[in-house]
Structures are given as C-alpha cells and as structure tokens.
Amino acid sequence: MAGLSRSSFIDLRPLTASPAFARLWAGSALSGLGGQLTIVAVMLQMYAITGDTFAVSMIAVAGLVPMIFAGLYGGMLADAFDRRVVALLAASVTFASTLLLALLTWFGGETPAWLYALSIVNSSANSIVLAARMAIIPRLIPRELLPAASALNGISVGMMMMAGPALAGVLVAVAGFGWTYSIDVVLMTSLFLGLWTLPSIRPEGAPPRPGLQSLRDGWRFLRHASNIRAQYLIDITAMTFGQPLTLFPAIGAVLLGGGAVTTGVLTAAVAAGAFASSLFSGPIGRVRRHGVGIARAVVVYGAAVTAFGLVLGAAALGWFAPEGVGPHTVNVVLLTLAVIALAISGAADNISAIYRSTMMQTAVPDGIRGRLQGIYVVVVAGGPRIGALYAGALATLFALWFPPLVGGLIIMAVVATILRSSPRLRAYDALHPQP
User: What InterPro entries does this protein's entry cite (predicted)?
Assistant: First the structure.
C-alpha cells in the first residue's frame, strides 16, 4: 500500500519544498471557495429575478471583453512590475466588488444591472490576479516539481468547486443571498495573507515598458510557439462547446428537479472529478508526451459532455420520472447519471489542465511568462464565457439537452484534427520543453 501511495497518489513535495507556495496555495483555495459561492449565487439570483436562462448566460458573456483586456493587461503588468504587488492590487478590487454586492443584497438594492456590472468587475480583477499568480509559481518551486504543483492546484480547484457550489445552493435556499455573499467576503481575506507573505517577485531580465509594444512582443512570441498555440486552440474549443454551467439552474428547475440544490450538486460533480484525478495524479508527473496527453484528455472530456446531453434528453422525454419533477421532487436515476458524466468531464479537464499548465510554465521564458499567462487566462476564462453564449442561445432556440450533446461531438472532432495536423505537439517532450 505504501508503494501504491508513492507511485499513484498526489505528490505533496511542493508544499514542503516551498513554504511560500504552501501559503499561496492555501490562501487561493479558501478564497476560491468563497468565489464559487458568489458565482453560483449570482446565477441563482439572476434566475430568481428574471426566470430567464439566457439572462443567466449573459452574466458570463457580459464580462468577456473586459476580462480579455484585463487578462492581457494584467499579464503585461506581471512582466513589468513586482508580480506580488500586481496580484495584491487586483485582489483588492475583487474584495471591494464582492463587498458591494453583499451590501446591495442586504439592503434590497440588487438589480440585474448591478449583478452584471459587479460580475464584470469581479471577473476582470480575478483575471489579473490569476495571470500574476500563475507567473509567480515557477519562481517558488523547482522545475521538476511543477507538474506536482499543477496537480495540487487541481486539488484546490476541485475542493473549492466541489464544496462551493453545493454549499452555495444550500446557503441560498436556507439563509439567502446576503449571507452567501458575506461569507465570500470573509473567506477572501485568506488570499491577502497568501500574497502578502510572499517575497518580492520581479520578472527576470530587463522588464519591458508597459504598453502596446509589450503586448505585441507577447503575441509575436506566441506566433512562433506552435505547441502553446495548439494547446490554446484545444482548450478554447473544449471550453466553448463543453461548458453547460449556465444551464444548471434551468436543469434543476424543469428537467431533473431539485432547484438550487441540484444546481449545486451538478456543479460539484465536475469538481469531484477534478479532485479525484488530482488525488491520483502521481503517474502524470512521469508522462513526457504532454501534447498527446492534452489531446487524449480533452477527447474524453468531449465524450463525457455528449453523455451528459444524452442524459438530459432522456429527462426531457420523462424517463424515470413518471410523476414529474419539481423543486422538491428529483429524478434520482438521471441525476445520478448526470453526476457521473460531469465527474468524468471534470477529471479529464483537470488532467488536461495539469499538462497545459506545466507546458506553459516550463516552455515559456520567465521574462515573457506574464504576458503568455495573460493570454492563457483569456483562453481559460474567456472560453467558458463564449460557451455560456453558445449554451444559452442554443438552449433557448432548441432545448436544454441540445448544446452539450452537439458540443461534445464538436470537441472530439476538432481535437482529433488539431492533433493530426500538429506533429510538433505529438512529439512534445517534457524533458526538453519547446514552446
């Protein structure tokens, strides 16, 4: 059993090798838990106010353009200034926007316009925090431990997304939106502790002057980095066509039953898969063909998303729910199958993310890493927002089961095409990383 633990379970050495990384990891996990409370609560509150799935999907879409600019600008700042300071300032904006959201809700001032506006501010500031934090990590731990650090981040994301949405559904149902946002405000203070205790982390070499030329330099590097480009294309395809998150409130209300609690359970299922795959991520650190690993993981992701669509189609036909569903009546059989499909999708996405993050942190030079991480954040955070528009529009035009069913098939076809047409990605060797 000890041998199995060493070879198969997650590698915890980054936490002991770098106390600074350990503090940052813990602070990010706790604040991320609070962030998930707010993300789910905002969706539920918008649906409660409007009763419109498309309005829920527009929460993500409205923040797309500001988030793109914030991610690119934040990455540029991370290459020009102390990355610790950049992350702290952006985290302060996130804290202020969440506090205002809580106050508006407590005093009855929440409106769809406020929900949209504060979600935009929150997501934009978080993009800057993420770009700076991801550029910081390779400076805190040895290169050979970066895959293990990425797996640990998968553990934290899995825990916060597994507990956060489920807890949000319960908190909203039992205590209301105000308490849910307020708990996020308290948990967010842990991020400041993790960032504040870091040493000064300035980019290596002569820092570029912030401005358009600095951004052009980042894009110029990306133009010649075919492996990084290929992983971006694979990820944005998966996130665009395989993110049914905005459909969950309506699925809980009209297809599977259970209301807000089902919304939390479905979201937590994705995180449970990510958590499990990180827990057993030991073998991933020994894989050298990261490009092939990314593609295979995303193909599995697409298959799981398609399976989820099929489950929703069965629910629309009334299978296993002869007496119907409602806020207090759940289609247990199909909810279970939906949870399994989403857990598999979460596991596959997390494995892909470990490979992608390691490739980014080892193949990209430190002096330009912030700008590339900024572009990476735009891909990772922007794809789901485009996906929200895709899912919301197609669900409105056709049915709730249609976007995931078709989206999963598209993902598998596109990824297979990219891998076949990218010989450098197929040949990528983690021991000799090339962008």
Answer: MFS_dom, MFS_trans_sf, TM_effector
Query: Rounded to an integer, what distance in angstroms lies between the CA atom of residue 435 and that of residue 430?
Result: 11
- Longest distance between any two alpha carbons in the chain, whole Å: 68
* Cα distance from N-terminal residue to C-terminal residue, the chain: 38
Residue 55 CA to its chain's centroid (Å): 21
**Cα 146 from Cα 17, distance rounded (Å):** 12
H/E/C letters for each residue in 116-152? Answer: HHHHHHHHHHHHHHHHHHHHHHHHCCCHHHHHHHHHH
Flag whether 217 is in a domain: no
Q: Which domain holds residue 251?
A: 14-199+223-426
Neighbour tally for 328: CB within 10 Å: 9
Distance, in Å, from the CA atom of 169 to the CA atom of 412, rounded to the nearest integer, reads 32
CATH code: domain of residue 81:
1.20.1250.20
Residue 85 within any structural domain of the chain: yes
Domain assignment present for residue 435? The answer is no
Report yes or no on 401 lying in a domain.
Answer: yes
Angle made by CA atoms 393, 394, 400, in degrees to the nearest 5:
115
Query: Distances from the Cα of 152 to the Cαs of 9, 261, 419, in angstroms?
Result: 11, 28, 27
Could you give the CA distance from residue 387 to residue 236 in angstroms, rounded to a whole number? 9
Kind and range of the H or E run holding 355: helix 332-363
Q: Please report, in tens digits, the pLDDT of each residue of the chain (435 residues total).
A: 344 445 667 778 888 888 888 898 888 888 888 888 888 888 888 888 887 777 887 777 777 778 778 878 888 888 888 888 888 998 899 899 899 999 988 988 788 888 888 888 888 888 888 888 888 888 888 887 888 888 888 788 777 767 777 788 788 888 888 888 998 889 888 888 888 888 888 877 767 777 777 778 877 888 888 888 898 889 889 988 998 887 888 888 778 877 777 887 887 788 888 888 887 877 776 777 888 889 999 999 999 999 999 999 988 888 876 566 555 677 888 889 999 999 999 999 988 988 888 888 888 887 788 888 788 777 776 777 788 778 888 888 888 889 999 999 999 999 999 999 888 888 888 777 787
Q: Would you give the DSSP letter of residue 207?
A: P
Residue 292 CA to residue 348 CA, distance in Å, equals 13
Q: Helices 402-420 and 290-316, interaxial angle, to 10°?
A: 160
> Locate tokens 């629309």: which residue?
316
Q: How many structural domains compose the chain? A: 1
